[in-house]
């Protein structure tokens, strides 16, 4: 250590950042319902998102019932099947993953991890949640309107999305588009908060390079989402106008059941550009927070500093940039100039470099670490395996030439469920088990947690791994039933049954998680302030759960990065970020 | 998508410039010293940074609409440009006046001239409302001449882009109303200056957006 450490640090003044004017709740309603406290808003976001996620889970069960046992059930007809597919996809991607990772974890962790009292715009933050709730309610309302929800597929491609014959053409598609627009407005309010809080709300000493990777992930993903969601907004507005006012932004001249429609000249490809300009960054909007969180879980539970912190930060930023120039790899079969295909295949495959770098760094962090197989660690390890698996199939689909025969088969379903379904969900569970003690002050039950992990992990593999084979055998996605097709062997039916049974088991295992969360709130063992012996600031709060304003009288001062684990000679084996350095030589005299 | 990619490139340049100020090459694991003497965050008020980020989002929205506009124009041969109403020219002038009034307000609040601050905010708001009314009249002229929204994509984009710009200005008027209320109540100068600055920045931005939209419509 240099000379700088010889200074007496105790006298560092703490509140350099102007304090956020805290809103002080005066009634039960403003404290727990219309709360402006980011921690309450985080819980509201998380519970709403998980509830929406459970609706989507039930929808996937209904789909699997049909796919696994196509002839034995007559409760699901083809229009319903398409409605379930559509709602399942949209809810999971937008209303669960985006909302939970950014609205839930972002709200809880950003202010605590950067050492702020709250988000910089608390009122806007509250508004963000209620707008999000409205979006969810509008979306779910479409189950109860005549014609039901839209069955256009989660990509909502025109022309079929708004034409007669597609389920939910009457009202469902309108509610879907309106709900998405409301969601985007609500997200923008939240996203501004996440970004500006990281930029302006950091405690003294918390430089960008001392931020935990969780914050880097959420921060970068929020910036991306702020720029990418407008593309979906533009697409939704224009599609809505095509549907309601008869404009022809996306709708070509078309004949439906012998009837000429009043459309002409519109371009469905234009919608695809808009949709995927949002859609591809969206993958990383979900993945980057997961990357960040998993880095912190691995480092904490392996008691080892993260390998290559700088590289991890750079990789997050580079992935963020690259994800804006790869969108057309979702459109290889829509028809494009071969040079464009070459360009987009190249950019897509280049993303594999920073991503693989991150995987190596996680594995190298584990190498010779003091690995504690706690529940969060199990989920983190499960994530690495699943993400590598999903990433490898991405190499197949990223190549334009290989993608063409695999396009619209179950292989694609397997790929994106592995990479942006199961992988982020494993991180979400790991993160919930990890931060639950901070949120509630009690530990979740470990036995139940481990049961939940193993059933979910193995079960998810039983669900999604066989889909690769089904896809290679030519089983198409989005089909209500494949019937008797010579090209597809009968044995695929048996595999489909296995997948369906596994899906039911995995689904039921999630009830164990719900039970654990509710039961442990009262009956879990008290956790204390820092049960995982973690370095980051949220574990150093004076109260657990953190009180209003997070930090008591003084804001924390940050002296070091977030990964001082297994420090030789440290009192415990780690040094919290806000622990002042000890003068050299004095340490040995301490008892 | 060229227009959007240009915007992304611009924003990426800003991001890279900002990142280069964050000492991304430092080795944080070696630097467990005191807090750096330099403030970790910029001294700018959070509201200003927030508005800056919001303007990036709005830029992205308009750039995407502009991308869709130019792509749709070339994707099919049914595009029929509509005659741009002459009213848009004086309207543009009114918006310049509005922006100029906001710049005047910025000067006035710094000099502590409350009277001229009030006048300038009033002029800024009134001319913005006049602009919006002018836009509605332009719409009426077009519909009276038979240029309906669904008739041609050029018409649809005209209504869509002008409406979107108008809505953003309408939102700005809400903020301006709150600022005027602050001035009337006589809040302390710092907060008043910040509010006026934010309004003015938004006004200048919307003027630029309007000029871009207008150029796009003329080009079509």
Features:
heterodimer; A: 591 residues; mainly alpha; two-stranded antiparallel sheet; 1% strand; B: 220 residues; flat
Describe this structure in words.
- Chain A has 591 residues and is an all-alpha fold.
- Helices cover 60% and strands 1% of the residues of chain A.
- Chain A has 14 helices and 2 strands, in the order ααααααββαααααααα.
- Chain A has helices spanning 28-33, 38-68, 78-114, 122-141, 172-200, 213-244, 268-301, 309-322, 338-366, 375-398, 400-406, 410-440, 446-472, 491-523; strands at 255-256, 259-260.
- In chain A, β1 (255-256) and β2 form a beta hairpin.
- Helices cover 76% and strands 0% of the residues of chain B.
- Chain B has helices at 2-20, 46-75, 88-111, 114-144, 153-185, 189-219.
- The radius of gyration of chain B is 21 Å and the shape is flat.
- Chain B contains 6 helices and no strands.
- Chain B is mainly alpha-helical and 220 residues long.
- At the A-B interface, α5, α6, α7 and α8 of A face α1, α2 and α5 of B.
- List unreliable stretches of 5+ residues of chain A: 1-18, 585-591
Q: Oligomeric state of the chains?
A: heterodimer
Strand content of chain A: under 5%
**Shape type of chain A:** globular
Written as H for each helix and E for each strand, in order along the chain, the element string of chain A is HHHHHHEEHHHHHHHH
Please tally the β strands of chain A and state the result.
2
For the largest interface, the chains and their residue counts are: A-B, 73 and 53 residues
What's the short story on this structure?
The complex is a heterodimer of chains A (591) and B (220). Chain A contains 14 helices and two strands.
Describe how the helices and strands are arranged.
The complex is a heterodimer of chains A (591) and B (220).
Chain A: H1 28-33, H2 38-68, H3 78-114, H4 122-141, H5 172-200, H6 213-244, E1 255-256, E2 259-260, H7 268-301, H8 309-322, H9 338-366, H10 375-398, H11 400-406, H12 410-440, H13 446-472, H14 491-523
Antiparallel strand pairs in A: 1-2
Helix pairs in contact in A: 2-3, 2-4, 2-14, 3-5, 3-6, 3-7, 3-12, 4-5, 5-6, 6-7, 6-8, 7-9, 7-10, 7-12, 8-9, 9-10, 10-12, 10-13, 12-13, 13-14
Chain B: H1 2-20, H2 46-75, H3 88-111, H4 114-144, H5 153-185, H6 189-219
Helix pairs in contact in B: 1-2, 2-5, 2-6, 3-4, 3-6, 4-5, 5-6
């Amino acid at each position: 250590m240099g000379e700088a450490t010889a200074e007496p640090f105790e006298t560092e003044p703490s509140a350099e950042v102007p304090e956020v004017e805290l809103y002080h709740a005066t009634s039960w309603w403003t404290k727990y319902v219309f709360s402006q406290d980011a921690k309450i808003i985080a819980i509201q976001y998380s519970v709403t998102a998980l509830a929406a996620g459970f609706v989507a889970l039930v929808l996937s069960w209904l789909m699997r019932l049909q796919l696994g046992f196509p002839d034995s059930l007559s409760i699901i007809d083809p229009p319903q099947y398409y409605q379930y597919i559509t709602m399942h996809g949209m809810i999971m991607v937008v209303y669960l993953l985006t909302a939970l990772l950014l609205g839930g974890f972002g709200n809880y962790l950003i202010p605590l991890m950067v050492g702020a009292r709250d988000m910089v715009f608390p009122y806007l933050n509250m508004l963000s949640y209620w707008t999000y709730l409205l979006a969810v309610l509008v979306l779910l309302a479409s189950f109860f309107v005549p014609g039901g929800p839209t069955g256009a597929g989660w990509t909502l491609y025109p022309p079929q999305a708004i034409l007669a014959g597609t389920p939910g053409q009457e009202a469902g598609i309108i509610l879907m588009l309106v709900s998405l627009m409301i969601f985007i407005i609500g997200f923008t309010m939240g996203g501004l908060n996440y970004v500006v809080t990281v930029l302006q709300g950091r405690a003294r000493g918390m430089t960008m390079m001392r931020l935990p990777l969780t914050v880097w992930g959420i921060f970068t993903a929020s910036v991306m989402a702020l720029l990418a969601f407008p593309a979906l907004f533009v697409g939704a507005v224009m599609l809505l106008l095509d549907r309601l006012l008869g404009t022809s932004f996306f709708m070509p001249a078309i004949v439906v059941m012998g009837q000429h429609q009043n459309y002409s000249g519109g371009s469905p490809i234009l919608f695809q550009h808009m949709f995927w300009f949002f859609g591809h960054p969206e993958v990383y909007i979900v993945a980057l927070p997961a990357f960040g969180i998993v880095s912190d879980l691995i480092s904490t539970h392996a008691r080892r500093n993260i390998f290559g912190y700088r590289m991890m930060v750079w990789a997050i930023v580079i992935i963020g940039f690259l994800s804006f120039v790869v969108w057309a790899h979702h459109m290889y079969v829509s028809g494009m100039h071969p040079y464009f295909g070459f360009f987009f295949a190249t950019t897509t495959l280049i993303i594999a470099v920073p991503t693989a770098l991150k995987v190596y760094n996680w594995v190298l962090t584990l190498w010779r670490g003091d690995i504690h197989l706690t529940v969060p660690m199990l989920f983190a390890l499960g994530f690495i395996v699943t993400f590598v698996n999903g990433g490898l199939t991405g190499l197949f689909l990223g190549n334009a030439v290989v993608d063409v025969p695999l396009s619209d088969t179950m292989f694609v379903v397997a790929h994106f469920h592995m990479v942006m379904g199961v992988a982020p969900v494993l991180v979400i569970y790991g993160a919930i088990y990890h931060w639950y003690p901070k949120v509630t002050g009690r530990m979740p039950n470990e036995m139940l947690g481990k049961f939940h992990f193993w059933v979910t992990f193995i079960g998810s593999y039983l669900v999604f791994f066989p889909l690769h084979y089904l896809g290679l055998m030519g089983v198409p996605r989005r089909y209500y039933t494949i019937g008797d097709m010579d090209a597809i062997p009968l044995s695929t039916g048996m595999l489909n049954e296995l997948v369906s049974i596994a899906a039911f088991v995995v689904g039921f295992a999630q009830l164990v998680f719900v039970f654990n969360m509710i039961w442990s709130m009262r009956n879990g063992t008290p956790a204390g302030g820092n049960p995982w012996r973690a370095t980051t600031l949220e574990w150093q709060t004076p109260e657990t759960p953190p009180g209003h304003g997070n930090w008591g009288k003084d804001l924390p001062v940050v002296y070091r990065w977030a990964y001082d684990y297994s420090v030789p000679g440290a009192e415990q084996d780690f040094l919290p970020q806000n622990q002042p350095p000890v003068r050299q030589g004095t340490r040995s005299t301490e008892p | 998508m060229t227009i959007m990619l240009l915007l992304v490139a611009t924003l990426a340049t800003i991001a890279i410039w900002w990142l280069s100020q964050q000492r991304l090459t430092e080795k944080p694991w070696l630097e467990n010293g005191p807090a750096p003497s330099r403030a970790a965050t910029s001294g700018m008020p959070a509201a200003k940074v927030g508005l800056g980020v919001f303007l990036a989002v709005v830029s992205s929205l308009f750039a995407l609409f502009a991308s869709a506009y130019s792509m749709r124009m070339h994707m099919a041969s049914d595009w029929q440009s509509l005659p741009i109403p002459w009213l848009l020219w004086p309207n543009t002038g009114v918006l310049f006046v509005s922006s100029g009034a906001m710049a005047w307000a910025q000067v006035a609040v710094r000099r502590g001239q409350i009277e001229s601050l009030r006048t300038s905010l009033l002029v800024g708001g009134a001319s913005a409302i006049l602009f919006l009314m002018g836009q509605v009249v332009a719409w009426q002229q077009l519909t009276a001449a038979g240029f309906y929204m669904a008739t041609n994509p050029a018409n649809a984009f005209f209504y869509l882009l002008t409406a979107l710009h108008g809505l953003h200005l309408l939102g700005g008027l809400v903020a301006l109303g709150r600022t005027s209320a602050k001035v009337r109540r006589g809040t302390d100068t710092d907060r008043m200056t910040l509010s006026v600055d934010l309004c003015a920045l938004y006004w200048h931005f919307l003027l630029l957006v309007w000029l871009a939209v207008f150029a796009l419509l003329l080009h079509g």
